[in-house]
Specification:
Helix content is about 40%, strand content about 15%. It has about 210 residues and is of the alpha/beta class. A hairpin with a 5-residue loop joins strand 2 and strand 3. It folds into 2 domains: about 50 residues; about 140 residues, no CATH class. Keywords: Hydrolase, Metal-binding, Nuclease, Nucleus.
């Protein structure tokens, strides 16, 4: 990222952060930073290109090492049961505003228009993989298959935690379907404890996945 004419890198990054954090419109950013609409668009895209460049991505978003994560090894709830788990993975919908002719492809299961971003996070809260750009109508499992076909490498014998929206396979461990799972379901009833082996598995799976 380089300084632009009369605009330093600090202001460029600030403009970008306000835009993405608040969902601010071009007009709002014009008023806040006292820049023209063309300048706002150009600066925003410059920062976006810099942050998504291979140099930045590869420096900060790295696949986890092939070792037992401390977040698993040091927790008796999880070790040794999840000792081969490397990270948690899920799809996350981010609001989008596509053109009218594309809205149908971007409409997600809740009826909103979005993009579906597949992200994996380690147990020390670091992103280790990100795949963006897919339309909101696309299922998480489709994103995962696309990621595996390209650059998501998972060592033999290791796996990621995922929710029931994914199919169980040798590199994904998912919860039992039809059994209480989400932590909010457990917390809704005071002092509720797992009463079966499947409930216990799902409870610990959800707890480990709650990065």
């Amino acid at each position: 990222l380089q300084p632009a004419r009369h605009v330093g890198t600090t202001e460029q990054v600030a403009l970008f952060l306000v835009g993405v954090r608040q969902g601010a419109s071009n007009r709002t950013l014009q008023e806040l930073f006292q820049r023209s609409g063309d300048t706002v668009s150009r600066l925003f895209n410059q920062v976006l290109d810099a942050l998504t460049s291979p140099e930045v991505y590869n420096a900060y978003v790295q696949l986890p090492e092939n070792s037992i994560p401390p977040g698993i090894r040091l927790e008796s709830r999880f070790y040794p049961w999840f000792k081969d788990c490397l990270a948690a993975i899920d799809g996350s919908h981010i609001p989008a505003n596509p053109g009218s002719e594309e809205k149908a492809r971007y409409r997600d299961r809740k009826g909103a228009t979005s993009i579906n971003v597949l992200a994996a996070c380690t147990f020390d809260m670091r992103f280790c993989y990100v795949l963006s750009g897919w339309e909101g109508s696309v299922a998480d499992s489709t994103l995962f298959h696309d990621a595996r076909a390209h650059d998501l490498l998972i060592p033999t014998g290791r796996y990621y935690l995922a929710d029931a929206g994914f199919a169980s396979c040798d590199v994904l461990l998912v919860p039992y379907r039809g059994v209480r799972y989400h932590l909010r379901e457990w917390h809704a009833v005071r002092n509720r404890r797992p009463s079966t082996a499947k409930e216990l598995f799902n409870y610990r799976h959800a707890s480990a996945r709650n990065v």
